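BUG: 3D viewer hangs when loading the predicted structure for this chain

Environment: internal workstation, default settings.
Expected: structure renders.
Actual: progress bar stalls at 90%.

Input used:
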Amino acid sequence: MSKILVTGGAGFIGSHTVVQLFEAGYEPVIVDNFSNSNPQALEGIAKIIGQSCTFYEGDCNDIAFMDKVFATEKNIDGVIHFAASKAVGESVQKPLLYYKNNLGSLIVLIETMHKYGVEKLVFSSSCTVYGQPEMLPVTENSPILPAESPYGNTKQIGEEMIKDVVVSKNTPLRATLLRYFNPIGAHPTAHIGEFPTGVPNNLIPFITQTAAGLRPTLSVFGDDYNTPDGTCVRDYIHVLDLAEAHIKALELLDKQTEKYFWNVFNIGVGRGFSVLEVIKTFESVSGQPLNYKIAPRRSGDVEQVFANVEKATKELGWQTKLTLADGLKDAWRWQQKLSQTAVS
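Structure tokens produced before the viewer hung:
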């Protein structure tokens, strides 16, 4: 059984990927410091797969900690690197935190992988690397424009770091870079989902918390963009479909005989939905009316972005199976469970 280290494995995307890794026959090993995740995710994973996963609590920026993980596990076959700070708005306010955490951890990880002879890396990147695209949908060959936020810039730099390591041919590395669009939803069992800390930075948990009565109003940041209804447009992908892409990315790396390899893929649905479309779809699938208001534009937000996913379909053999409505149903089921747990 191939052992895969999953940094940030207790997070939203990480926890769902851990489940799919196990179901695909891999042995996931989780690293997380719970800075943007919840220990309950580990319990949820165990309920779904029927057993606990090996887990190490610590920071990927900590060289000694990461060395201990690799030394203890000995035969790690590959790494999926999720661990990073990810809030666009927060990154504008705290840029140094994002550069230190997101880039420092990647450097430590690659150096430790090299020390222990681990060559396969799946990197969690983002559609934010495209900045505000000049043409839509974006392909993997679309220009990498100036990032709209420090978070986006860390993903651009992270990609360049990985490419430079591969091109140098000093450190054997086979890497697949996945540019995520906007993950939504939860596991259909409602055992795992998104645990936003404090005020949510993403639209869907803010919607579900408002519907659950935890927040009085949902703010829609701007209705004067150059989009069909004036609100921002995003490509929303179900987290289960996104998790599946990581399995396909590992399989691609397994097929590579060259020690120095990298490739990049858009991981999205392939069409955009406006904020108001998402709100209306949620109201339809949940039966819950939402109290929302139009607020000023938010710093760092891109007007619209959605993916061309033909390359991922052709070269990874991957495509989405679930819809926006599916994602919103699962997210609402998850929120209801969280609310019930809080009451009890």
